[in-house]
Amino acid sequence: MPDELGFDELLDDGGLIARLLGKTAAGRKRELLYGHGTDLPVVLLVGGPGMGKGRLLRCIRTRFGPRVPTAYLDCAQTDARELAEERPGSRSEVTEALRKIALQYGDWGGDGGGIAV
Length: 117
Fold this sequence. Notes:
Elements: H1 2-5, H2 8-11, H3 16-21, H4 53-64, H5 79-86, H6 93-107
Helix pairs in contact: 5-6
């Protein structure tokens, strides 16, 4: 699917994603795009519905997920809001979203197993 969508150059061993993560999809080290500073890169994907943002993220997760921990949240879903409304004194949409990310990291089955959360 990535080649059909034109994502190959982003996802290949010398592409943007490998250089942002510092690893290829096979787990080999790659020189970081952002050098050796303390600031990590932030990538913002923008575009209207159907532009391929979700497809690109799924391709990244499929290809790099076994070697690099990834988490996925669909911010259009309302479950975080619904869970937060059950206990508004101690929960918020943000805490529920962070909980979902932590659970995904704990279940990660890549190199070294799950991340303790």
